[in-house]
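Exercise 7.
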Amino acid sequence: MNLNATLFAQFVVFFILVAFTMKFVWPPLMKALDERAERIASGLAAADRGKAEMAAAEKRIASELSATRDESAKRIADAEKRAQAIIDDAKQTAGVEAARIRAEAEADATQQINRVRDELRAQVATLAVKGAEQILQREVNAAAHADLLSKLATEL
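Solution. The predicted structure, written as tokens, is:
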């Protein structure tokens, strides 16, 4: 066999192999590579969209967190004001109640003083009658002298 004929046969086989590869192997391979490149590109685009959405979500979260903090601080301040108002109201009510109790106690004390004075007047009147009875050595009629005793009691 001749070197030229072998070389020519190898060229023919090589071109047939290249033609077969270009016709049947290369298009599915290129199609798979193109699909993969497209998937990679769409994945990168989705990742970029995801990053943008994540940044927007973080901004929303930060603003909502700030609003929530402001609202909770406002509620705490309102609760403290309300608690202080309740305490002040309770102090005022307690002051009014203390004044009322003090007034009742003073009125009760005044009534007791007056009652004790009346009892003391009655006792003094009785003692005065007994003293006068002993001085006069005779019995004094308390019913007859009731007017005199009442005048004496009012003078005391």
